[in-house]
Here is the input.
Amino acid sequence: MTYYISTYPTRMARRMMARPEAGQSAGYALPVNILEDQDAYILSALVPGLKADDLNIQILEDVVTLEGTYTADESEYLLRELPHGEFQRSLRLPIQLDADKAEAKIKDGLLTLRIPKAESARPKSIKIAVK
Here is the structure.
């Protein structure tokens, strides 16, 4: 296992959040964590202050797209680090997904999205008949 150490971790995090991805407008890039279970992917993202109605989640074959908008007041801030504006994040996962059985929930500003793998993509075990 390789570890990378940065002398300025907050500077790197700000750069990554400010950098637009391919096909994405310059705005807030939503950071995510993805876990792979035997039969599903579990995606987690911090979405502070957003409700279920503020998010749009789309799943098409093996691509998951998260869209939303952080509403911001027009006050002048001395320091502004909380996310504001629109965001869109598209992630291509390695195999096909079953969008009909996907489940999403938001609790305490944490979005948890469980997306089962398509039946054709799950590993199958074959029993060998002994004669």
